[in-house]
Amino acid sequence: MKTTRGKQVLISSTVKSEHVETRMEQQQRPRIIIASPSLNMLGGAQRACLHAVHALRKINCKIILATIDKTKWAQVETTFGDAPKPDGERYLFRTMPKMPTEALRQASIAILYAAQLFGLMMKNKNDLLINMGGEIADNLGDIVYINAVPLRLMHLFPAIQPKSGIEWRMYGRIFTVFLRTLGNSTAAIVANSKFTQALIRKHLGKRAFVIYPPVTTRKIGSRAKTKERKNLVVTIARFRSAKRLNIIPKIAACAKNCEFALIGIVDNGSEQCLSELSAEIKKLKLQERVHIFGNMPYEFTLKTLSKAKVFLQTQSTEAFGMSVVEAMAAGCVPLVPRMGGPWIDILDSQEGLYGFSYENINDATEKIKSLIDNETLRSEVSARATERAKVFDSSVFEQKLCHIAKTMIWHNKSPLVRQFSNGKTVKTSNCC
Q1: Buried b vs exposed e over 180-189: b needs ≥16 C-beta within 10 Å?
Q2: What predicted TM-score, i.e. pTM, was given to this entire model?
Q3: Which part of the chain is CATH 3.40.50.2000?
Q4: Which of 156, 180, 237, 387 has the fewest C-beta atoms lying within 10 Å of its C-beta?
C-alpha cells in the first residue's frame, strides 16, 4: 500500500470515471499546482509539462504553474508551436540566476527547485501538487513525474556528468541528505520509460509505473506528407556535451552521400558544445554537408523532418527521446544507440522493425549508408515507424494523467495503490 503524508487509503481499481466527475462537480473547484524547474529550457520535459497543463484544464480544476523563473511564453510558443497557459503562475525569479559553471548551474537549480517544492507542500496542503521535474526531487509532491536519469544517480553515467564521477557522487550524496531533510513523501511515482523505471527500482528502491511522454504524433503525421525525401540525416538535441553530438562530424566524414542537420536549443550552457562542434566540422571540411540550426521555430523543425530520410539520436543514456518519436511520425527512420529509452521503449529492442540501433561510429555510418542507398528498405521501415509512433500520442499521456489526478482528488490526494509482481507493473485500472 502506498501512502501520502501519513494517510493510508486503499483505492479500488474499479473506480469509475463518472463517479469521480460527479464528486468533483459537487465540491469547490479543486486546485492543481503543476511544478517544473523552468519552461524556458525548451526541452522534452518542458513539453510534457505543457501537455499536463493542457490535459488537467479539461477536468474542471484551477491550474497553477510553479517555476523557478518566469516563463517566456512567446519563446515557448515559437519553439513548440503551442503553449497552453495555466490559470495562474508562481515563480521565484524573473530570470534564472546565472552561474559561472555548468555544475554550479545544475546544483543551484536543484536546490532552488527542491526548496520551492517543499514550500508549496507546506503552504498548499489541500492542493494537488504534481512535480513534473521528478528527476531532481523524487520525494516531493503528490504525483512525481520523472523525465530523465535522476540527479542523484548521475554518477552512474560518466558521459552526462558536468564533473568527475567521484566529485558528482559526493554532490549526489549531499543532495540526497538535503532531500531527506525536506520530507520523504511516498507519492505516486511515474517514470517516462521502462528504462527509467528500472533505474528507479534498482538504485532508489522505489516502484514506479510508466506513462510515456506526450508527442502529437497524429498531428505531425497529417502534416508530414512529403513523398520525395532528400539524402538528409537529422538530429534534434540541446547543444550539450552530454548529448554526444561530437560523433556527428565523424559519421558525416564517412557517410559522404548525404547531408546532416543538427537542430537544437542554444542557451548559456551551449557555448562549449557549439565551439567544439564547429571546430570539428571545419577541421574535417564538412561545412557544405553538416549544418547547425539553433533556436528555430517549430515549423522549421517539422519541415526539416518531413524532408529527411534518417533521424540520428546520439545520447546513449537518453531516458526516452520525444524527438525520436516526432521524427518517426514525420516519416524518418530512427537510428539510436543500443541502450536507453529510444532502444528499449520506442524501438521495443527490435532491430530493423521500427528502426535501427548502433554500438559505435562505424556501425552508425554503415547503417546510414544502407538506408540512404536502399530506398525499398527505408520506405518499409519508415511505414512501420510511423505506425509505431502513434502508440506515444499525446492523447494517451493526457488521458492517463487525468485519470490519476481525478482519482487522487476524489480520495483526498492518497496515491493510487499499485500491485507489483516480480518487479513488473500489473494493470489494475485503465490508468496505466
Answers
A1: eebbebbbbb
A2: 0.86
A3: 17-214+393-420, 217-392
A4: 180
